């Protein structure tokens, strides 16, 4: 029935199938609670009847003094009140489920009983969500634009295009590279990229002298990248 009335439900109160299922489960729980109370009542009555048969209590021969605050009477009264309350709540929830399945507006008293927000509150919340999603989308667009701008500036100033390959690994490609596959791979080994380690690649094996001098002896990545830039630039100039 819910599948057949999806369009009608969407035009009415905006409640999902999950919420209807939750209400059904709540009804089942209340029915179970009511059944449990009825079983307890039957158990008490059976115990009383058993005592009567055993001679422990005979209504015709035993004079019963009723206290004004009789615990047994109070327990029975609470039991009756609990049963009535559960029955009433079950009926309200059944009415709410039927209203949701019809797809029509939900009465205000049922909304309050089920703890559901009113239609006006739902509409206001939807507006807030749409506004937040719009702001989030604009921030994403601005962030993407700034990232692209930053990448272009880095490429123009340093001569290297920097790409993130995997977590904590960065690929550097020089604008003067002779082949597209000529690249360097650095891995961050310290917190927040404080230390970087050059990983071996096919291209890094072609510049062992620069690695030996600037990385192993001088321990300077900027000097190594600058020397490599000058070396690649000189090759293109000569060519």
Automatic annotation (TrEMBL):
<keyword id="KW-0995">Kinetochore</keyword>
<keyword id="KW-0132">Cell division</keyword>
<protein>
    <recommendedName>
        <fullName>Mitotic spindle assembly checkpoint protein MAD1</fullName>
    </recommendedName>
</protein>
<dbReference type="GO" id="GO:0051315">
    <property type="term" value="P:attachment of mitotic spindle microtubules to kinetochore"/>
</dbReference>
<keyword id="KW-0007">Acetylation</keyword>
<dbReference type="GO" id="GO:0005813">
    <property type="term" value="C:centrosome"/>
</dbReference>
<keyword id="KW-1017">Isopeptide bond</keyword>
<dbReference type="GO" id="GO:0007094">
    <property type="term" value="P:mitotic spindle assembly checkpoint signaling"/>
</dbReference>
<dbReference type="InterPro" id="IPR008672">
    <property type="entry name" value="Mad1"/>
</dbReference>
<dbReference type="Pfam" id="PF05557">
    <property type="entry name" value="MAD"/>
</dbReference>
<dbReference type="GO" id="GO:0051301">
    <property type="term" value="P:cell division"/>
</dbReference>
<dbReference type="GO" id="GO:1990728">
    <property type="term" value="C:mitotic spindle assembly checkpoint MAD1-MAD2 complex"/>
</dbReference>
<keyword id="KW-0131">Cell cycle</keyword>
<dbReference type="GO" id="GO:0072686">
    <property type="term" value="C:mitotic spindle"/>
</dbReference>
<keyword id="KW-0206">Cytoskeleton</keyword>
<dbReference type="GO" id="GO:1990706">
    <property type="term" value="C:MAD1 complex"/>
</dbReference>
<comment type="function">
    <text>Component of the spindle-assembly checkpoint that prevents the onset of anaphase until all chromosomes are properly aligned at the metaphase plate. Forms a heterotetrameric complex with the closed conformation form of MAD2L1 (C-MAD2) at unattached kinetochores during prometaphase, recruits an open conformation of MAD2L1 (O-MAD2) and promotes the conversion of O-MAD2 to C-MAD2, which ensures mitotic checkpoint signaling.</text>
</comment>
<comment type="similarity">
    <text>Belongs to the MAD1 family.</text>
</comment>
<keyword id="KW-0539">Nucleus</keyword>
<dbReference type="GO" id="GO:0000922">
    <property type="term" value="C:spindle pole"/>
</dbReference>
<keyword id="KW-0158">Chromosome</keyword>
<feature type="coiled-coil region">
    <location>
        <begin position="20"/>
        <end position="142"/>
    </location>
</feature>
<keyword id="KW-0963">Cytoplasm</keyword>
<keyword id="KW-0832">Ubl conjugation</keyword>
<keyword id="KW-0175">Coiled coil</keyword>
<keyword id="KW-0498">Mitosis</keyword>
<keyword id="KW-0137">Centromere</keyword>
<dbReference type="GO" id="GO:0005635">
    <property type="term" value="C:nuclear envelope"/>
</dbReference>
<dbReference type="GO" id="GO:0000776">
    <property type="term" value="C:kinetochore"/>
</dbReference>
<keyword id="KW-0597">Phosphoprotein</keyword>
